[in-house]
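User: What would this chain look like folded?
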Amino acid sequence: MGAVTEDERRIAERYPSSNRRRLLVPLVAVLAIALAAWILWAGLYRANPGITGQLHSFRVVDNHLVEVAIVVHRPDPKVAGECVVQAQSTTGEIVGEMTVPVPAGGEADTTHQVELKTYLRATTAILKNCRTL
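Assistant: Here's the prediction, encoded as structure tokens.
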């Protein structure tokens, strides 16, 4: 490299190099590590749910009653849990809700039959969620 000319020295003094790059690189690295850690945590947490459920069938008996059958799967049958079942009207309004207990023990896959009381006529039933206790 040759010597710095007077013009180059004067320009360098007028427009000094910024420290932004020195601050930006570590900041991006920290954010990338935090994002990777969060993705790993979320993936591992959601990859092994303790209990899952599936709506097997439902039958609208009358204006105030729906019979619902759900199938619950637990990888570990020693784990207790609960599932929330809802009934909906033609407008999508929730007209009944029930928490179904899933006691510990028994088989890994169990079927639970429940009678869900409603305050209006339901047209469908849904399994909102299942969770371990």
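DSSP finds two helices and six strands in the chain. If you want, I can go into more detail on any region.
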